Amino acid sequence: MRTPTASLLANDPSLNPGDAYPDDVLAARLRNGDTAAMGSLFRRHAHSLIHLATALTGSPADAEDVVQDVFVGLQLALRGYVEQGAFAAWLRSVTIRTALANQRRAARRREVSPDGEMSSVEAPSNDLQRLLLRDAVVRLPDDMRVVFVLKVAEGYSHAEIASLLGIRAGTSEVRLFRAIRLLRALLAESAEC
Amino acid sequence: MLNMLHLSEASVTAVALGDREATGRERNHLADCTACRGRLAEVRMLRDEMRVTEAAPVSPTLLHRIESRVATGERIILPVPLPFAELTPRRRFGWFRVAAAVLLVASASIWLTPRSTELVAGGTSGELHFLPLAPRAGDTVHVEYLAPPQLARDTALVLRGRLRTRWDRAYASGTHQQPVATLRRGSDGRFRAAFRMPDSVLYGAFAVENSLGSQVDSRHRRLWELMVHDAAGKPVFEALVQRENDLMGRDMRLAFATARDRAALYPDRPDAWVNVRFHEQINFGQDADTALAAHHARLGRLNGQWRGRPSVPFAVVDGMLSYGREVGAGDDSLQRAVSAHWRPIQRRMIDSDRMDPDAIRAHWWHLNDLGIGPRGSGGANSARAVLPLAEAFWRDVGSRDPSGAEVGFQIARQARDSGVARRTWIDRFAAVAPVWAEGLYRGMADEPALRRDALERLIALSNTLLRPDDSRRALELNRAEGATKDTARAQRVFGLLGDVYLEGGDTASGRQALEHATASGWDVTLFRKVAVAELALGDTLLALASFARVAVDPATSAPTVDSLATTARRLVGTARWNSLLVDAVQTMRIRLLARAVHQRLPDVAFARESGAPAVLQQLSRGRVTVVTFWTTCCGASESQLRALDTLSSRLAAMHAVLIPITDDQLNAETLAFAKVRGVSVPLYFDRSGTARVAFSSWSVPEFFVLDAEGFVRFQHSSLGLVLAQAAALQKASP
Known about the structure:
Oligomer: heterodimer
Largest interface: A-B, 76 and 72 residues
Strand content of chain A: under 5%
Shape of chain B: globular
């Protein structure tokens, strides 16, 4: 039989296992070494993060690498997580930053070895219009695609994008409307085929 | 005609994505222009299409791959988002560098910051300058920072500070840290910011870190400092008090130096000399009495000097009484004369100006003397009589001085109150000194009537510690180190919780709490407690697994290890016990190395006892090395000196070496001091302070453990842990 004092301890969610916890509780448990909590967070968020990382990197394979890195580093990163907003938003932000960092590394590698090609597009959608759009987005130059995805799909402001990418807000605006102009051309081109 | 101009691409995008509303002219144009409406709709379609979040296929093996990488101990530092709002510097300074340089050359004040860019164990350090160097209260302070290589590539850095007002207490018991300004990199590579010192702030200690809080420049743990000065450019008396308070616990010798500086700058202030006496007693013990004659003479002189003045500040009146109490023991007639003259004046001043901060503090100490007597000599009855007075004063104006919470707590304890008053004062004291909360709650649990309250508070405290709160993080620590420290403290709280449960006979809850306490980290004391709880519950195998951890710690004595082995072999057989020992050794290594660092040292040179030079790297000769700092003028250091020979021989048994370093004078007196305390291992002398800077070690006793390659792996460690840490590194070496 539980004593009243034992129930005090039991009422503390950080002390008890269970998968039905909200994100912040799972995050706290993972931060404190409960790796089972990572599985719960993965099952809850992996789909949308893969989707996001695919849009950013243009490659499902690279996206998988990004998401893999995010979850491998998550326990350590959570030490710096301040519960000032939704965990899901924070996790998306970390994923974006990780994708951008990986992209910079990949760009450096490409400088050394120009033989590497971007992965071909394997968009998951079977909706033709969406498929064409995703294909066109992937064909955008990296700098335009990232701004386009962050602004149009993720809803970041130009100031936030500027902060993320280390560019000026005006540069972000220019890249966005150039991306839209180029997309328009690419979509017209694919319609002609 | 204007309506005929098409919207620009930027305008279409901004309006379509909701960045702004269309202007009146744009609305008029859109009403007429099919083409622009079409472009607008097209961008909105793009947005809507892109925002459809599909269930992207996730490889069924992805989670398994992630878990495999985590299991191998792989660590990835992710680029986490900035956890606080950006601040914008007010203006930039072309003239700043020149002016700062002139001031730096012109002043030899102790508040200037030394320069160093060398790579050292305590982290790298850049150059940071404040302007003005001697700000007045409420001034705007401009900061210029030349970052070391590790921080120089960032575009923005964070200046974090611990800002102290006159109410802040000694040690960092309740003072919080906070971001003060964002330093932005200019085209010349230097970082600049400006911030306004709040009017109430007297002293600030600062460090610089990157936006992730992963790299910290703490000036080798000495921090950059800023004190409020008066119109003549002299540090304000109370600012010096707060500097001394801040240094307590992080650099006691510099705290003592600050007390001496304050007395030198304000020689007529008796309250300055009170603290000099305090530090003399801490540093020199009974030898401090050799300075009593000089203090007596000064007390007599100050007594005569201030008695002749028509108006005396309250702080001086209070200081005369305190100084008389501290140094008057050898001359009762002088102490009586001082008390007889100044006590009534103090009472009159308290009664006439109840809002004066010094009067409030003095009234608290008056209640303290009434309730518990000098040095706790009063009985429970007098404390009970004073308890309602303390409560009434707190509700009136007393809560303005946080130290009143400590006085109220002491009175309630002396009164042996076991009800609301004790609980209330403990909560008030824990609120103003949160770092002491667990100790207060542990004491609370000793009262049966308050045991449940104590349990609730310990649980709440452990939860608080497991939630990130950057204001708790010391300026010298990065976020990971801060989180590790919080986790370790939460585990200690779980340990106390376990104690309380076990004492109350609730063994199951006690064991559960202790399991949380021992879930990570390495603490032999807690392992013992868990083992005992498991034995009480009849789980012999789990108990032996915990006892195995005790047995494998190199600090455990041989008789204890033998005793545990004998019992264990009888219960489970030799093979099983050996298997538990193997597991325990592995656990010890994994857990200790999980908290290890990997920092390179510059060449560290010092002197041998003979005066001949020695270099740390040559003394180590590829062995695991424990470096300890000690001094003759620290009680804790003195007591640990007696253990150095034993420590050295145990380290030698594992082919490791001990290097004890002091920055005391190399002379016969220092050597005799060590010899009397049983030290026969070679001692090393760091008069230049090179070793202290290299290790960023400013307090004693402190231990550092280096691996065979000469990297610092464990820093600011303790005597109880260094053997296990050295053993963990030995196992890691090929």
